[in-house]
Amino acid sequence: MQTLVEMVKDRCRKDASKTAFLVKKNGQWQPVSWSHVDDQSKKIAAGILSLGIQPGNAVSIFGNTRLEWTLSDLGVMRAGMISVGIYQTLSAEQVAYILNDSESRVLFVENKELLKKVQSQKNELPFLEKIVLWNGDADGDQVIGLADLMAAGEKALSEKADMVEQVENNIAATDTALIIYTSGTTGPPKGACLTHRNILAELESTSVFPDEILGDTMMFFLPLCHVGERVAGQFMRISRGITAAYVEDINHILDDIKEIRPTFFGSVPRIFEKAYAKVQSEVANASFLKKALFQWAVKTGKTVSRFHQRKEAIPPGLKIKKEIADRLVLGKIRNIFGGRVNYFLSSAAPISVDILEFFHACGMLILEGYGQTEVSCFCTGCTPTDYRFGSVGKALPNVELKIADDGEIMVKGDIVFKGYHNQEELTRKTINPEGWIYTGDIGRIDSDGFLWITGRKKEIIVTSGGKNVTPSNIESRIMNHPLVEHAMVHGDRRNYLTALISLSHENLKVWAEKNGYHSHDIQALIGLEPVRAEVQSAIDEANKALAKFETIKKYVIVPNPFQVETGELTPTMKVRRKEVEKKYIHLLDALYQ
Q1: What is the predicted pLDDT for the residue at 457?
Q2: Which residue in 103, 163, 302, 391 is deepest, having the highest Cβ count within 10 Å?
Q3: Which pTM value belongs to this model?
Q4: Measured between alpha carbons, how far is 378 from 371 in angstroms, rounded to an integer?
Q5: CB-CB contact of 477 with 353 (8 Å)
Q6: Contact 153, 142 (CB under 8 A)
Q7: What is the CATH number of domain 1-6+39-171?
Q8: What is the CATH number of domain 460-590?
């Protein structure tokens, strides 16, 4: 198989009557067959071609994760065009930047609200010819409805039945399939060009996760603009024929999980951190007896976990204790995720070993992987039979790893991207003549081949005393506390480290009720001395495992949570350090006075 289009068509042909996706309508999960996916995506492809758009042009998609996103994406590729995703949380100016940089001729947009963002920039969009609206009535010459586009496609196919097949047959493995714009923690987004060969190589490499581990049901809930949900999610599920359910409201994901009962679950670390914090918060508010039972069950589970980690047989007596712990406590925690998940996949940021051990104690193994957009998603991964907590695993099949003299991780293989769109000089700086990509991450490879991430080159803090500090490791330790939503360590060219702390308002309210504070005034609660004592305990606990120069000397609680909408977080929940520092520089400066 040479292209993604061939892969998609092969799946639709082999499993025509089977369920490809699940969509919730009127409170019920409705199945969508592979034959329906084939029919709809083909009509979308024909519809775009009927507009006069040429193969090789870019088409953007602007909306939440939903079935229409996938159908539009597949339709664009079947038309021989380049698919470009745009995060729905971006500002109007950022949307215009991506549309112009990619030279997108057509834009699929979810609803009138997002359409307004685009139309506010209409005089700044010289390349955009048509907008296709998923929801709502289309108005004006430039905007048409998705149903109208598909009707035009159906008409075009009736006049020339093989019009789409002719285009599909001319798609080459080296053609760009996607341009994925990085979330831009350090500047404007960069468009990473991924070819059909890149993505197929990635799917082949992830064969280390066998079908029996992945199971038959997964969920869509992360942004499809992101390489993780797009490649390791959408395309991997299509390649394996796995049914996937669309979660359209992330606030109700736990309810959907209980209904869908997925067999495998991939996410960013923050989802696991929030789940862990929620459990810890509920336990803290439980009776003495329930708290003691919980602690005994988790301790038993962790003991079993360590036997598994050492690949040793579990003693009979411990097996019996674990079965009791499962029935009384641990099974209930597994039910939070539907009860069928035995394995999770976590990437994009480090996750605390404490959280990894907790989930494993409960019977759910979180496998960490490492990669980035520029290597088509994953280049390393832990597997169910070969893992180490805190490591991101070994190089995937057909992937080479090495560590440069300065500690930077370098990767080589067919998964390495084509380059940055319209940025030849940056591409040359990123991929050397031998095909090795400079990842920008610092790490080490141990004697058994496991990769350990120790920092990010651009995020390394250098104190005024010349000490190099990796902030992410410290931050993840602080965020183990249920009240801490985000932590950002600061101290570049300063004589000691400080931290900005963003609290979980939800967990803060629970804490307040438990401790006799009945006010729901968040700012009043943040100002309470006992709340500061809780945060100080999180800092103290983190400091215990750190070298003296790495310890946090002072901190300040910010009044509002870090959010994507207010610019502190990227759409993938990474802290935009420069933006946060700029916003709160007055608070940070005060910590050094």
Answers
A1: 78
A2: 391
A3: 0.84
A4: 4
A5: no
A6: no
A7: 3.40.50.980
A8: 3.30.300.30
